[in-house]
Design brief:
By secondary structure, the chain is of the alpha/beta class. The protein contains four helices and ten strands, in the order E-H-E-E-E-H-E-H-E-H-E-E-E-E. The strands form two sheets. It has a seven-stranded mixed sheet, sandwiched between helices. Strands 9-8-10 form a three-stranded antiparallel sheet. Strand 1, helix 1 and strand 2 form a beta-alpha-beta unit. Helix 3 packs parallel to helix 4. The longest helix has 13 residues. It is globular and about 40 Å long. The mean pLDDT is 91.
Length: 171
């Protein structure tokens, strides 16, 4: 299957209150991605508001809570390398189907442990150290689009055109 996400895919962001997580979640909301919440331990019960999109999303302490309350099927991870392996494993253990890890610099031996854990789940991992995935919609970044797109990651949405394929990128 070449399309991993659609405009209907509910997506959460792990690390939403950090600089990168906040900026790229805002960009995803502008693009039309169905962002449904974010995770930052210790900030659960608060709300994130996009600077440009003005989207308001609930923040949860754990991925499990976010999945239970939002029905999220995908996550994007913008946490430091030291915490990324645990973030990936937490997402997989919580039933997330698609995990997009943007984080770079994760030690190889940590990822070996993650790969072993993922083998016991149905989760698909894109990354780490990747720009993400995108499925352009028909006018996905325009108001009133008939088929919204889904952008999970750091790539600029305007350079992708609608069609029959999705883009999975590896830097």
């Amino acid at each position: 299957m070449s399309i991993f996400v659609t405009g209907e895919t509910p997506v959460i962001c792990q690390g939403i209150t950090g600089t990168n997580g906040s900026f790229h979640t805002d960009q995803a909301c502008i693009y039309g991605t169905r962002m449904v919440g974010g995770i930052t331990p210790g900030k659960g019960g608060t709300t994130w508001t996009g600077t440009q999109s003005k989207a308001e999303l609930p923040i949860f302490n754990t991925v499990e809570e976010a999945v239970r309350k939002t029905g999220a099927k995908a996550t994007v991870i913008y946490v430091p390398a030291a915490f990324a392996p645990d973030a990936i494993c937490e997402a997989a253990a919580s039933g997330i189907e698609l995990i997009v890890a943007i984080t770079e610099g994760i030690p190889i031996l940590d990822m070996v442990r993650v790969k072993q854990m993922l083998a016991t789940t149905k989760a698909r991992l894109i990354g780490p150290n990747c720009p993400g995935v995108i499925t352009p919609g028909t006018g996905s970044h325009n108001a009133g689009s008939r088929r919204p797109g889904c952008k999970i990651g750091i790539m600029p949405g305007y350079i992708h055109k609608p069609g029959r394929i999705g883009v999975v990128s590896r830097s």
